[in-house]
Every structure is written in structure tokens, then in C-alpha cells.
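Record 1 of the preview.
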Amino acid sequence: AARMEGVVVKQGFLYLQQQQTFGKKWRRFGAALYGGSGCALARLELQEGSEKSRRGEAPRRVIRLNDCLRVSEASGEASSPRDTSTFFLETTERLYLLAAPTAERGDWIQAICLLAFPGQRKELSGLEGKGGRPRMEENELYSSATAGTPQKEFAVTMRPTEVSQRCRLRGSYTLRVGESALELWGGPDSGTQLYEWPYRFLRRFGRDKVTFSFEAGRRCVSGEGNFEFETRQGNEIFLALEEAISAQKNATSPGPQTQPVR
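->
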């Protein structure tokens, strides 16, 4: 395939979190950020392993920045490789969780934002706050927390796991992203709340095209374990959950009530 060229704006390496059969794995890629020029699109290219790439065999991922919806720090995410910090790059296709060397994360975010949102150069020229978090991100979260714009309820089908069977959960339910907890409501008709999982007791959550899953901590009413749901809206649930967690973080100063008891 003919290579798209363009001006390399930034290069280095990034890790991409990939969903595998047994959980998630970080994979290291050589990364190059290209500015758009002529017929070349602004894009982030991730190229695996140097050996194979010289022979032109390595898989290359191209993330087109004109499909980019947002770029933001991912502070509360699962542990990333040593000396790196995580950030989200969300496109119309999917949500990528990337990790950059900690000292470079702000630069990567800024460089991607400048290419993806050329109209917003002015606001972005001074990245505000600590660790280079764009201030507009905060405002977005703030307004959406009050306006409740994103969809909060999702029809899901429980997949059997050890903990779902222990809780005797099977079949169809409504998963609701509440203000401080994920809630499971019984069936589409019955308005009974069966379980809730407070956000601060969720260990991790993730999704792919056909599922959404999370791991409950031992302090949840359900006990600890993995819950998996069949849904085509995994990404929407993921984003609503992430937003609710951020909003909760912003709303509550970490007083004694949010501190986990050791």
C-alpha cells in the first residue's frame, strides 16, 4: 500500500492498551504524529517492533485525527508501564488508552490536540493546570455533570461468570450509570434496583465491540469478581462511567467519606 506522507510533528514511542482474551495488555509501538498536508491526513501512526518493520511486515495502526473527538489525561486508569502516564484518544470508531513517558505526556496531548482541533489553537496554546490538562476538559465535565446529557441507562445481558452465578444473576437487565455508583435494575419493565457498585470500589472496567465488563472490589455488596455484559453500547457505557467518576472526583473534596478504610 502506498504510504501517506506528511510532516512528522512528533515522534517517539507510546504504549497502547490492548484487550486480549485474558484481560488487557500494554504493547509498545514506535509512534509518529503527522501533520496534514496536500492529500495526506493528519494522523498518529503506531508501528510495532523495529525488526519486522524494516521488512515491512509489522502491523501499522493509523489513527486519523480528523475522526478524533477528544484527547484527555486518564489519571485514574489501571497501572501503566513503568515511568509512563496514561491518556485517552477517542475517535468516532473507538477509544484508545495510550501511555507515554511521563515527562512527554503533556507534549503528546498538546501536539495531538493542535492537529485534531486546529480551530482551538488559541485556547490550547497555554495548556492549563498541572500536568498539561486542557482546561476545556474540566468545563466539559462540569457542565455535563449537571446537565446529565449522556445516556445513563443501558439494556444489557448478563454473561455467566463466577460472581454473577453466585449473585444468581442471569438474563436481561438495565445497567444504570448513577451519580456515585453503577446500578443494576431488574429487567426492562420492573423498576427494582438489584445491586449497586460504588465507583470507588470498582477496580477496573473495560469494553470491546460486544461486551462491557468491570471488576468489583471486595467491599461491594456483590462481593469481588468480574461482571460481564453483552451489549453493543460498551463504549457509551465506558464513557458515561468515566465521566461520572470524573464528576464525582471534582465534586467531592477527598474528605474522610471517600477514603477507603485500610
